[in-house]
Request: fold
Amino acid sequence: MVGWTGSRGAAVAAAVVIGVLVPATQQASAAPVREAHPVAATASAASPAAGAGSAAPGAAPGPAAAPVAPAPQAPAITHREERVDTPAGPVTVDIVVADLNRSELRATLLTGATVGERSSVPAHARRGGAVAAINGDFFDLARSNAPAGPSVRDGRALTSAVPPGRRLAPGVPGAQQGDVLAIDDDGTPRLDRLTLDASATGPEGRLRIDTLNAYAVPVGGIGLFTSDWAGDRAATLCGSDTDRDAPCAPDRFEVVVRDGAVTAVGPPGGGAIPAGEQVLAGRDQGAAALRGLAVGDRVTVRQALTAASGTVPRTAVGASPILRDGTTVAGLDARSRDPRSAAGLTAQGRLILLTADGRESTSVGITLAETAEQLRRAGAVDGVNLDGGGSSTMVFRDQVVNSPSEDAYRLVPNALGVVEN
Reply:
């Protein structure tokens, strides 16, 4: 164990392991690394030939054998630091492993009161009572600050995905709209895909709803906003499906629904939405369709995030898969080095959180391909890329254990946390 202080905060004890990134062909020939497990001491027994289990004639009986103590149980959650050599130089990697099979742990999404409310990862962890936390999804930085992908907190759907071309994240081959890291009610983590199934049915029929509390409504579409949103709704109707700086839609319109009836119509607004109120905001053809509704019309709004796996998650954070079935996704970027955050899951259902420091002379950052490899080395069979760069922050037991690349901890809309029950 090594104790250290400095830019990483108060002294933290961590096991330090030196790793080297090598080509997969070399990895295949390397000797497997085996974990050392504690073994309970047992009393030696005499062989039958020596009269095991019986005393010599006339001998006084000896004391009863002491009961054997059970082997100590491994900690449910651990943190370690590793120094890894890359072709560009050394990198510091922090890894948290949480055994979600253990009843004393659960994973959760840490957020503010609304989807665009930002906090530092340490603040998210403190507010949520998390023993460990890592920054979450990419987000609409400096605008709405809402996350780009689907998000689910305690079984409640908060957001759906924005159009793929509006996701402010590095391209990942094979990634699809709605990709998430999800955790079930029983604590089982998995890669999944969440799709919004939503509609508004009024006097003239059913209207499709394309997004939920998303910072970009697709061209020609309709977005649904609830009390989980407190930002500018008009801005969500600007840009194109691939360019956030494209002009706003020439036709924008919104409808306010409360208790199953339209209460207001007009140009899109902004600000807090009262609990129980729903706002439908449309652009282009979506705006024209909403104009068919008038104050007093009865409207039924329904929405749900459906999972490709068929299992509704209790927790979900938007993220792009970079490791599947123990194999790095083909075509991942192997050149750009940055601070990274990632999460993975093992075959035994453990959750792995990982950060790699970058933009420092002592830690040069890693590529997406190397991020996937680091997850695999840590024991993951599936893994995802989270927001990186200045957002990359990991907290373990009230301490920031990695070295974020910015002077101040970046404020982020959500974080993936592990809570001790």
